[in-house]
Write a sequence for this structure.
């Protein structure tokens, strides 16, 4: 067993980065990710890693420098949050389109306006279509474990795509929890030596990144990019198997909690899943057959597997910690997309919760379950989309 | 099974062939054409230095040669920078097709 420590989510992820020792890290501070990179730059200053830190003037430059370093042939990492990632936006697409395996912890935080520094998923959901792999973490342990696995997934020779490791700002990033670390040598062995693919610094074989490709081939390159995404889930599972062998901790594309005989279900990501599981346990004691699905791999989304997990369920509430104004919450669309393939589709309800770090409390989970029970019994849905935990 | 066309494309649209830009002739973009007037040329090579492409050619003796009109896009930087002989330009811009 590894060392057991009491650390914050940021501290745990910084520790994972120390153990992996990337070649280059270009970063710009932003709450709540600042503390993560501050800790990591401490490791650099103290000679614990030999990472080349590039201090830049913005997140746009941070991602640009990461792209350059990755194309050059280095193992590259950065971290950001909210507005920081919003400023990276155009570069995120380039990192993915150029097939560069950059790993980026994203400490999920609300987007302005109004200005808010607390946790919700608006930033990560906004990057849904960038072509990055996205893993979401419930707690500090998962954030640490996902970071280690993300390097293996992103750098896999069949994949070579950038990956984001998401954890809830403050709720996870700044809360002290019990975390079990993996020993340094084991992590290094697990992640392995970085393998370059078409490195720019191989000057004997000159090459160019980022050409202009118009109507003749752009469509084909995007087709190829889609194809790579279809291979990610298998690699995520393969890496999870190896991770389980090393640590005993099992990861999947999503977590199923008390789903085997469930008649109603809640789908929710990240830290809110923990609170929901506690309330599910209470309702199970009362005989309510309720289960939970917590997506871990959000991009690419495991449609088939989630549909299979929901095929016997009568009604589902999807809890979104982000909104698409004028639409439904982004996770709701994914689950609707998944259940479309089912012969018996469950009734689908969407709740928006916890924006800008609003606490998700047990009474909100109880409200959701009470409503689900009624809907499953009556077969009728009054309101599809509703904000919960709102001051009225 | 044989691979589909799009499966054979290099990952990440990386161009693996060095110097392949030479295959893409860009002279057709030009609307203004630089004209070299040899008698006004003092061989300062400013045009060669300032050309953002490689459209000013140099001959075997290291002297200024004719423009490469297959790549010159007619930006006019050479004409602007040309000091000429006693203030008389050795490069002037003319409308293409005139």
């Amino acid at each position: 067993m590894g060392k057991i420590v009491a650390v914050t989510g940021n501290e745990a992820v910084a520790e994972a980065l120390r153990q992996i020792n990337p070649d280059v890290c270009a970063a710009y501070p932003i709450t709540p990710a600042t503390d993560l990179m501050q800790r990591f730059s401490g490791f650099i200053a103290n000679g614990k890693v030999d990472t080349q830190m590039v201090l830049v003037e913005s997140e746009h430059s941070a991602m640009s420098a990461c792209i350059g370093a990755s194309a050059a042939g280095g193992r590259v990492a950065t971290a950001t949050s909210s507005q920081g990632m919003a400023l990276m936006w155009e570069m995120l697409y380039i990192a993915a389109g150029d097939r560069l395996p950059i790993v980026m912890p994203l400490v999920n935080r609300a987007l302005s306006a109004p200005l808010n520094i607390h946790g919700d998923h608006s930033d990560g959901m906004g990057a849904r279509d960038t072509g990055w792999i996205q893993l979401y973490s419930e707690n500090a342990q998962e954030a640490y474990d996902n970071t280690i696995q993300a390097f293996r997934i992103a750098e896999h020779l069949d994949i070579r795509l950038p990956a984001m490791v998401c954890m809830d700002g403050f709720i996870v990033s700044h809360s002290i929890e019990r975390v079990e670390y993996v020993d340094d040598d084991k992590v290094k062995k697990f992640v392995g030596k970085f393998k370059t693919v078409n490195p720019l610094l191989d000057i004997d074989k000159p090459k160019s990144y980022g050409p202009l490709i118009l109507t003749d081939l752009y469509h084909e390159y995007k087709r190829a990019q889609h194809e790579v995404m279809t291979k990610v889930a298998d690699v995520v599972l393969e890496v999870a198997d190896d991770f389980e062998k090393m640590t005993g901790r099992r990861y999947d594309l999503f977590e199923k909690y008390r789903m085997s005989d469930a008649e109603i279900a809640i789908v929710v990501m990240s830290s809110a899943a923990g609170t929901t599981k506690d309330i599910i346990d209470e309702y199970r004691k009362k005989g309510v057959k309720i289960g939970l699905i917590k997506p871990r791999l959000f991009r690419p989304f495991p449609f088939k597997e989630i549909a299979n997990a929901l095929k016997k369920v009568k009604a589902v509430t999807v809890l979104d910690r982000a909104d698409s104004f004028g639409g439904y919450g982004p996770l709701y669309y994914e689950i609707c997309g998944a259940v479309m393939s089912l012969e018996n589709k469950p009734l689908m309800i969407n709740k928006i919760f916890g924006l800008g770090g609003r606490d998700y409390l047990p009474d909100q989970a109880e409200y959701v379950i009470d409503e689900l029970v009624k809907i499953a019994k009556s077969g009728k849905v009054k309101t599809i989309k509703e904000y919960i935990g709102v001051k009225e | 099974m044989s691979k589909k066309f799009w499966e054979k494309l290099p990952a990440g649209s990386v161009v693996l062939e060095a110097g392949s830009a030479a295959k893409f002739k860009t002279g057709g973009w030009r609307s203004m054409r630089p004209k070299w007037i040899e008698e006004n040329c003092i061989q300062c090579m400013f045009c060669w230095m300032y050309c953002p492409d490689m459209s000013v050619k140099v001959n075997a003796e290291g002297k200024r040669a004719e423009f490469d009109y297959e790549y010159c896009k007619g930006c006019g930087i050479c004409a602007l920078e040309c000091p000429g002989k006693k203030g008389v330009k050795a490069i002037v811009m003319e409308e293409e097709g005139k």
